[in-house]
Design goal:
Blueprint: E1 21-29, E2 32-39, E3 44-48, E4 56-59, E5 63-71, E6 76-83, E7 97-100, E8 128-135, E9 138-146, E10 159-165, E11 170-172, E12 176-179, E13 216-220, E14 227-233, E15 241-246, E16 252-258, E17 262-268, E18 275-283, E19 286-295
Parallel strand pairs: 7-12
Antiparallel strand pairs: 1-2, 2-4, 3-5, 5-6, 8-9, 8-10, 10-11, 10-12, 13-14, 14-17, 15-16, 15-18, 18-19
Length: 297
């Protein structure tokens, strides 16, 4: 062609790139950690959706992970793998803490959707390799490769735990304790003036005849705004005792270790939001006594 030039272009066609094969293994339960592995018959580079590079990567949570493979020839492909979440993430709906059963039974005059009944719990809707509800450490309801049963009606004055196992890791919830005999939240015959001098542990009336009296806690003042004093008496044994404070969702917001068999301890309410809290005396692995605390804004 006049005034022009001719030449030859070279086009290289690479073989198609198959998507990489993916696998995972849970290498740690606490903290939860997954090892991700990608393989391909061709050589190339791997880039993961969580920012990792290389044929292996580490994920610190469950969920979907994607890897992008680029062959040495410049062609690319991708694949994804779903890693199970830690079973601990499903314990949020278990009502751990201490409760009074009378508060959960609907009065005859109140109906919810036309139904009056005793309380019950709903378990997580996700399937687990195994799950069980334990009462005082003994399985009373369990299953495999299924979600925990929709309704668990066994609510009695016992310690209840939910155990979940996703096939890699097992977790056990904090205990839920429901009492049928709940102590009065308003102390009787004890100084209620918040400006009054409160008794010391050595001279507290609770310290007398502790081996012959039932465990008990009372709160002064109650309701309270800035602080309240918890008067307590254990069951007479020398086993460790703690005061635990729960909000209405069952979340533990404070735990105080007790040194004496009976006495009093000051609870600072500066970080508490206004509302109702459950204060529990735990001894021998069970709730020995409990009382409501009203915190005013």
């Amino acid at each position: 062609m006049e005034g022009g030039s001719t030449g030859a272009d070279t086009v290289t066609v690479s073989a198609p790139v198959d998507p990489p094969s993916l696998s995972f293994d849970i290498i740690s339960c606490d903290p939860y950690e997954a090892e991700l592995t990608a393989t391909n018959s061709q050589s190339g580079t791997y880039n993961w959706s969580n920012g990792s590079t290389g044929a292996t990567a580490t994920g610190n949570s469950g969920g979907l992970y994607e890897v992008y493979f680029t062959s040495d020839g410049g062609c690319s492909s991708s694949n994804e793998v779903s890693v199970p979440y830690s079973p601990e993430e499903y314990l949020w709906n278990f009502p751990s803490g201490c409760f009074c059963k009378a508060e959960f039974i609907y009065p005859d005059s109140i109906e919810i959707c036309g139904i009056t009944s005793d309380p019950y719990m709903f378990g997580p809707t996700t399937s687990f390799a195994s799950w069980s509800y334990q009462v005082n450490g003994v399985d009373v309801l369990s299953g495999t490769n299924s979600p925990p049963t929709g309704v668990f009606p066994y609510i009695a004055p016992d310690s209840v735990n939910l155990i979940l196992d996703n096939g890699y890791c097992e977790v056990i919830s904090d205990a839920m304790y429901v009492s049928t005999e709940c102590p009065d939240s308003v102390p009787q015959g004890i100084i209620s003036n918040p400006d009054a001098i409160l008794p010391d542990a050595e001279n507290d009336v609770f310290s007398q005849n502790t081996g012959e009296l039932d465990p008990e806690i009372t709160l002064v003042p109650n309701p309270a705004a800035n602080q309240t004093r918890i008067h307590y008496r254990g069951n007479g044994s020398e086993s460790p005792k703690t005061i635990e404070v729960y909000d209405l969702t069952g979340r533990k917001v404070r735990s105080l270790r007790l040194q004496n068999q009976a006495g009093s301890i000051l609870l600072d309410l500066g970080s508490f939001v206004g509302g109702i809290y459950q204060v529990c005396l735990r001894q021998d692995g069970r709730i020995a006594a409990q009382s409501k605390l009203s915190v005013t804004p």
